[in-house]
Write a structure and sequence with these properties.
By secondary structure, the chain is mostly beta strands. It is 4% helix and 57% strand. Strand 34 (593-606) and strand 35 form a beta hairpin. The longest helix has 19 residues, at 2-20. The protein is globular and about 95 Å long.
Length: 770
């Protein structure tokens, strides 16, 4: 008996020894190029048994016994791959082919209906900008990124301070709403410079919805919404880099960034941190010793974190701080009041938020409770001709709190449906003081909103209907904003959409109209007219989105037609001066406007070898009645909206020369447009003024611009988990920059259009983990 037991034990031990020698091995390659992929993660599904591939893309996994396994291979920017493997002996010739992610096709988005949904299942068109695009165009901030989306155009409206604004479908900045993680905390004050104050290394993605969005997000979502989604920790990762740029041989810019993400076991908790430092010297394009691109010092820090209270409950926390100094004008080595003209601001911005999500009944019912706030402390100087009284001080506090409830129903009348409802309270407290201009203004805004919507999902159709009710303290009656969306989706490859949505813009005394761009730096006070009505919009759009293979390529075509009507458009009319000689203007309701046209987006992909994107917009932006734009009665009014070209677009083209050698080309086209050009007060100009100036206000027809950019980068793999990247390139290669700038102290600093930066050379270094 003992001999029998001993024989069994020896046999078992022998089998165990042989099983211990079992291995699964192979190579991970790029499906398009066939090149091996170092640093890819390969694991056995359902276990912790995993390893990263070596410098040759090879992997080897030890297993305990033969059987059927599922290998899962993953790599950043590639789709995960699962492959079943039947192991009876040592296996070392498995080939895992990974395909690069299509970042423009099927992202998860939240801006369509306040719920996470696949992009092609969303009832409205949601366009997405990802870090891949940020990298290809070498953008540093939000302002340098948004041009690479059809229907969007970023322009710089001031030579002195570099105030940027984004236009959606031709409508100027105040008609667009910028959200941070779906929260409207960007106030009228912070919106003036917000596009340059958001570094791209804090951003996970940017979701853009064109057309009226007030039914979901409230005031000012007339032209559309730009939803900035910040980085959410999903894996352990770090990245640090620096870029040095030179603007046309005249001015330098340095940018340093760092990101760290950490997650706990089974993603129970996570934290993401970012830091950005930026220094830019002033750039003088025409040799008059006055800046066209202002001086900028910025430091931004932020943290996003979460804790999973349970499998169905998640608590999120975020905090962001931005300290920014910007200055434009001349004589940068002197105090502002000693110069001919200076526009200078010092911002200290603190913002943050809490977000609690909870699900019940297998996540059939979901609740989201949130609170966000932003506080701004700003010191400023807006003055000219050595004015010692042009200093100002502004404080601004914005907060938002609310709750949403979502429920999935098996059937509501005709089909399964998802109901979403919520309430929201928004408040803003602004105090702006400029003693020299006699301005001491307080603006209090309180908005209580409630919204409901229901989304019916049928086999080929999705129908969404919803509305929002807003009670605004600056508007006499509550505002109702409805929306209706229809999605026709006969297959995974084709979607057709029809949309009707509404929007409104609330009156307020403070916005970028108070940003001093007047010739000579004179001040201005804005008052609201009695009985002022909100601007209202109706937006209609129809689109076709078709994804189809063309030989070895994947082609995606999106064609969208749009029409927006505006009623009760705000206009500013001069009504005199106060005792200090400061100009007083009243905001009144004017006539309406119509904006209509088409957006075309094309995307062509062949794995990582080639990625091409093209966007083009053709439109018309017209007032219903010719509007006066000059206070000179001899200057003719215009029906065409100023600073709005009828055609504009972009392209990006990227690919690989070798496995670690990437290249990209990008470009932005801006068509001809009308630009107001204001003449200075001739009585103030000295006889020996050395620069020419116009005699009367003029509406200028600008020339078209085309910016062409190029970038190359090479990755050096250090071991299995670290990459060192070197990159460099040129932005605006042909130096397509405005040629007819005003010059000197009496220039019209608002007469500034076209590309926002001149020819710029850059080199960069980046270190990142895999």
């Amino acid at each position: 008996m003992k001999k029998y037991i001993l024989a069994v034990l020896i046999a078992i031990a022998s089998c165990a020894d042989s099983w211990a020698d079992l291995q699964i091995g192979g190579t991970v390659v790029d499906r398009a190029t066939g090149e091996t992929m170092p640093g890819a993660m390969v694991r056995i599904d359902g276990t912790r048994n995993g390893i990263t591939t070596d410098a040759d893309g090879r992997f080897t996994l030890e297993i305990n016994h033969p059987g059927q396994y599922i290998l899962v291979a993953s790599m950043p920017d590639y789709d995960d791959l699962s492959m079943p493997v039947d192991v009876t002996d040592k296996t070392d010739n498995i080939l895992l082919r990974l395909s690069e992610k299509r970042e423009d096709l099927d992202e998860i988005v939240v801006s369509a209906n306040r719920n996470a949904v696949r992009r092609r299942e969303a009832p409205v068109v949601v366009n997405v900008l990802t870090p891949k695009v940020f990298d290809r165009v070498n953008s540093v901030d939000l302002a340098q990124t948004l041009n690479y989306q059809s229907g969007l155009r970023v322009e710089n409206n001031c030579q002195n301070c570099g105030f940027p604004q984004v236009r959606i479908n031709g409508l100027e900045g105040p008609y667009s709403q910028i959200l941070i993680n779906s929260r409207p905390v960007v106030s009228s004050l912070s919106g003036v410079y917000a596009l340059e104050q958001m570094p791209v290394n804090m951003i996970e993605r940017i979701e853009v919805v064109r057309g009226g969005g007030s039914a979901l997000f409230g005031a000012n979502a007339v032209a559309g919404t730009i939803n900035v989604i910040t980085k959410d920790p999903q894996e352990n990762h770090f990245e640090a880099g620096t870029t040095i740029s030179n603007m046309n041989g005249k001015a330098w810019e340095e940018v340093a960034t760092a990101n760290v993400t950490l997650t706990g076991d089974e993603n129970r908790y996570g934290v993401a941190l970012y830091e950005t430092f930026r220094h830019r010297s002033p750039y003088d394009a025409d040799g008059d010793e006055f800046s066209e691109v202002g001086k900028l010092n910025l430091n931004s820090f932020g943290i996003d974190g979460y804790y999973r209270i349970s499998s169905t409950a998640r608590l999120g926390l975020e905090y962001h701080n931005t300290s920014e100094f910007r200055r434009g004008g001349n004589k940068f080595d002197l105090e502002p009041f000693q110069t001919d003209i200076t526009e200078q601001t010092q911002h200290n911005i603190n913002s943050g938020g809490l977000n609690l999500t909870k699900g019940w009944a297998d996540y059939k019912y979901r609740m989201n409770v949130y609170a966000s706030a932003q506080h701004i402390d700003r010191s400023s100087y807006y003055g000219a001709l050595q004015n010692p009284d042009a200093y100002g001080k502004t404080t601004d506090m914005t907060w938002v709190t609310g709750a949403t409830f979502t429920a999935d129903f098996d059937r509501v009348v005709v089909s399964p449906a998802t109901f979403t409802g919520g309430v929201e309270y928004q408040a803003n407290r602004l105090h702006d003081v400029m003693t020299g201009y006699g301005r001491d203004m307080r603006q209090n805004v309180d908005i209580i909103g409630a919204f409901v919507q229901n989304e019916w999902r049928m086999r080929r159709f999705t129908f969404l209907a919803g509305l929002r009710l807003d009670n605004h303290n600056l508007i006499d009656a509550p505002i109702v904003s409805p929306r209706v969306n229809l999605l026709y989706r006969p297959s995974e490859k084709f979607q057709g959409r029809l949309t009707w949505s509404t929007g409104f813009r609330a009156p307020q005394a403070y916005d970028e109209d108070l940003h001093v761009t007047a010739v000579g730096g004179e001040g201005m006070i804005i008052r609201l007219a009695e009985g002022l009505k909100p601007e209202r919009s109706n937006s209609f759009s129809g689109s076709v989105d078709w994804d189809l293979p063309v030989g070895i390529f994947d082609l995606d075509i999106l064609v969208e037609g749009f029409y927006t009507s505006l009623n009760h458009v705000f206009v500013l009319e001069a009504i005199g001066e106060d005792d200090n000689g400061t100009s007083i203007k009243e905001r009144r309701n004017g006539n309406g406007a119509r904006v209509y046209g088409a957006n075309i987006d094309l995307s062509l992909n062949y794995g990582s070898l080639l990625n091409a994107r093209l966007g083009f917009t053709a439109q018309r932006s017209r007032y219903t009645v010719a509007e006066a734009w000059s206070e000179d009665p001899d200057v003719a009014p215009t029906r065409r909206m100023p600073r709005t070209p009828d055609t504009y677009g972009y392209f990006t083209l990227a690919g690989k020369i070798r496995r670690n050698f990437d290249w990209s080309l990008s470009g932005v086209y801006t068509g001809r447009m009308l630009v107001p050009h204001f003449a200075p007060d001739h009585s103030e100009i000295p006889a020996d003024y050395p620069y020419p100036y116009i005699e009367h206000d003029e509406m200028t027809h600008s020339r078209p611009f085309f910016e062409l950019n190029a970038k190359i980068s090479y990755d050096f793999h250090i071991g299995n988990n670290l990459v060192l990247q070197l990159n460099g390139g040129v932005q605006n290669i042909a130096n397509a920059f405005q040629r007819d700038l005003d010059r000197g102290a009496y220039r019209d600093s608002g007469y500034f259009y076209g590309p926002t930066q001149p020819r710029t050379y850059f080199v960069g270094l980046k270190v990142m983990s895999l």
